[in-house]
Amino acid sequence: MAILEINGLGISFGGLRAVNDVSFSVKPGEIVSVIGPNGAGKTTLFNMISGVYLPSDGEVKLNGENVTAKAPHLLAEKGLTRTFQNLQIFQEMTVLENVLAGFHLSVRPSILSDLLSLPGAKRRSAEAREKAMAFLEKVRLANAAEEEAGNLSYGALKRLEIARALAVGPKVLLLDEPAAGCNAVETEEIDELIAELAQSGIAILLVEHDMKMVMRISNHIVVLDHGEKIAEGTPEAVSKNPDVIAAYLGAEEEPAHADG
Amino acid sequence: MSANSKWVQLAVLAGIMLVLPVFFPSGYYYRVGALVYVNALSVIGLVILIGYAGQISLGHAGFAGIGAYACALAPVHLGIHPALAVLLGAVISGVLAILIGRPILRLKGYYLAVATLGFGILVSMVLSNERGLTGGPDGMAVPDLGLRQVLRGMGLKLSGGEFWYIANALVLLVAIWIALNLFHSATGRAMRALHGSETAARTVGIDVARYKLQAFVISAVYASVAGSLLALQNGFITPDVAGFMHSVEMVTMAVLGGVGSVLGATLGAAILTLLPQVLTVLADYEQLVLGLIMILVMIFLPLGLLPSIAARIRWRGV
Ligand SMILES: Nc1ncnc2c1ncn2[C@@H]1O[C@H](COP(=O)(O)OP(=O)(O)O)[C@@H](O)[C@H]1O
Ligand SMILES: [Mg+2]
């Protein structure tokens, strides 16, 4: 059974129909990729699913429950979290603290014991710290744990966002261009990490520009163009689809007009 | 590392507090020192609100006013001990902060600044206009705390200046300890996270409105207690304690010292409390010099004094 179901999702910005009538679903352990030219509406779709934008139409179901337009922090409680295409890092916190913030829900802080540094609060923080270090190892940032996050390279921050999202303990993880700006080696590492996460049962919704990576790791691909779903299916089926080829060629031929 | 640095900071500060009186030329300076500590107390509240949670308030003197007038009014009208009045003021400020914080913390940037500004003005207007109760702009007397007499009975004779120097130093140390605890806690991380990116904070499950409100309430309580102590040590209070200038002074102290740093804020409070005393020789130009210093600090040390200096030292040291 699908853990994430998108039915007829759509949104308008003024006159612009950024996403229109998009439906698909993701099962636990599955990697579903959303591809499409720049401006196709991929990030906007993620923003609606994760509660950042209020959709004008359609619904989002998580584990069968309608969660459309629920606040992002409530979605996180239900096991849905994400990373961002344009980095959203807690710049002035250390790398470790960024991941620790991801443990917010499991730590369940109590204001009084935090103000007075009571033993319970300290213990919970220490436990989170240990797990956070494990996630930093996973994305190979353990060495930078005590550095201020703002000082890290772009590729490192991309991985930090993944570690922070993992700290939430997600059942559904939305990754918006996790390998953008990363070199070939880093891309391969992220690639392996995503596959490993899916294997552990997390449902992954991925936006990625690196087509080789998408074709290699996706179970299912959804193609967007001008906000519309123009195709979906297995990697092979999608790569042979004439509409998809036309959308990509069209976008390359007249990039200035691609966004309308 | 974090826990150690907390105790090191507290120990250094306690050491400075202990040694400073050796250099006081007269008993009057105990009063000045006590004033520095009281100002630092409210500024540390603002460090939690501005530095941790990234929210602005230009009306926090309103809470100081509530704390101050609680100490002036409650002992007379409710018959409670002034020490309990400090607590009462803190509770009233906290509850009021919850009530007004809920709606106005949805606002951002200058909208929030203007809304908090409005709150501060409202409090100072009420204090000025309720002449029957508060004596209006002329102010009113504040009952004595009575603790000094108790200490004298136990054989410890302290001047008023000495007593308040010690009392405020102790309260400030506790307040700093709490602020540093918060900084390194999950609650503090949630506040700092939403400061960095509200969107990302939400996606990791942080209820942004809730943590903004907590920061607002804590800072209100700090300001309230500072106002109470100010009233008690002066034995007299006017609505100026809740005035706009006092709110601006608090924010300026925080920004000057370094709004993200608890010790920086203490330094900022010290400088801006002491500077007017030093600048009295310049009489008419005092405000001008203060303004100039502020502008220069913001241009050349935008992080505030202490963090900028610390960053430079580290940079050269490496
Ligand atoms: N908040 C917004 N306001 C107005 N237009 C927006 C907003 N967010 C996205 N858009 C528009 O929606 C379209 C899709 O953008 P986006 O989802 O970022 O595309 P993609 O991620 O596929 O490159 C673009 O034309 C973009 O300008
Ligand atoms: Mg995008």
UniProtKB/TrEMBL annotation, chain A:
Taxonomic lineage of the native organism: Bacteria, Pseudomonadati, Pseudomonadota, Alphaproteobacteria, Hyphomicrobiales
Source organism (scientific name): Roseibium aggregatum
Keywords: ATP-binding, Nucleotide-binding, Transport
UniProt-listed CDD domains: ABC_Mj1267_LivG_branched (cd03219)
Xref: Pfam families: ABC_tran (PF00005), BCA_ABC_TP_C (PF12399)
GO BP terms in the entry: D-alanine transmembrane transport; L-alanine transport; L-isoleucine import across plasma membrane; L-valine import across plasma membrane
Cited PROSITE patterns: ABC_TRANSPORTER_2
SUPFAM superfamilies per UniProt: P-loop containing nucleoside triphosphate hydrolases (SSF52540)
Protein name: ABC transporter ATP-binding protein
Listed SMART domains: AAA
Domain ABC transporter: 4-251
GO CC terms in record: plasma membrane
Keyword Nucleotide-binding: yes
GO molecular function: ATP binding; ATP hydrolysis activity; L-isoleucine transmembrane transporter activity; L-phenylalanine transmembrane transporter activity; L-valine transmembrane transporter activity
Keyword Transport appears in the UniProt entry: yes
From TrEMBL, chain B:
GO terms for cellular component: plasma membrane
Assigned keywords, A-Z: Cell membrane, Membrane, Transmembrane, Transmembrane helix
Membrane topology: Multi-pass membrane protein
GO molecular function, one term: branched-chain amino acid transmembrane transporter activity
Location of the protein in the cell: Cell membrane
Chain segments annotated as coiled-coil in the UniProt record: none
Organism: Roseibium aggregatum
Protein name as catalogued: Branched-chain amino acid ABC transporter permease
Transmembrane segments: 7-28, 34-54, 84-102, 109-127, 163-183, 254-275, 287-306
UniProt main location, coarse: membrane
InterPro entries: ABC_transp_permease, LivM-like
